[in-house]
Amino acid sequence: MKLPINELLFLAGKWSGKGLAEYPTINPAGYDETMVFEYDYTKDIIFYVQKTNYSDPERAKNTLHRESGFIIQTGEGKIELSNSQSNGRVEVLKLTKLTVDSGKTCALFTSKHFGNDERMISTVREYILKGDILCYEMKMATNRHHELKTHLKAELKREA
Q1: Which of 6, 25, 153, 156 gives 17 a disulfide partner, CB atoms 3.0 to 4.6 angstroms apart?
Q2: Which alpha helices (DSSP H) does the chain contain, by range?
Q3: Burial of 4 by CB count in 10 Å (0-12 exposed, 13-18 middle, 19+ buried)?
Q4: Against a cut of 0.90, is the pTM above it?
């Protein structure tokens, strides 16, 4: 899919809200999240950083997950999301679908490459913007669970 990176500027800004982490191999956990997408006009890239803390009162100040990365346009004109995660995993995903319909924008990224985690088979990340609400869902398949299953799901509100 060849698109200019500015098609993804709908992600730009600071977002915060709540989410749920789940997977057959973990106990479900609610979390509070802050995510920032920042466009660098000089490099024509989008940088992002994500921070989640457990939302239950006993662990509210404890980090659940952190990651940061870039959305770039490759030399072939394709858009990729690359990230590094607090568990050591690195990922590269490619933009496979972008739709704008009835005030809703949806971007779908699918995995292309993993590093430092032999368990991973595939991931899908979908970001959906409707008004000032950004919802995302991350699904993954591992060598123990071959079908894509929801791992993360969150609803974030744009901060002023």
Answers
A1: 156
A2: none
A3: exposed
A4: yes
Distances in Å between the alpha carbon of 35 and those of 2, 46, 101, 103, 154?
26, 13, 24, 22, 11
Given a contact cutoff of 8 angstroms between Cβ atoms, the answer to whether 151 and 6 are in contact is no
Upper half-sphere CA count for residue 146 (Cβ side, 13 Å) = 0
| Structure tokens, 95 | 């933009």
Backbone phi and psi for residue 47, each to the nearest 5 degrees, phi listed first:
-100, 140
Sorted by where each starts, the structural domains of the chain and their CATH numbers stand as: 5-158 (2.40.128.20)
**Residue 8 main-chain phi, psi, to 5 deg:** -105, 10
* 67-104: burial string, b at 16+ Cβ within 10 Å, e else: bebebbbeeeeebbbebbbeeebebbbbbeebeeeeee
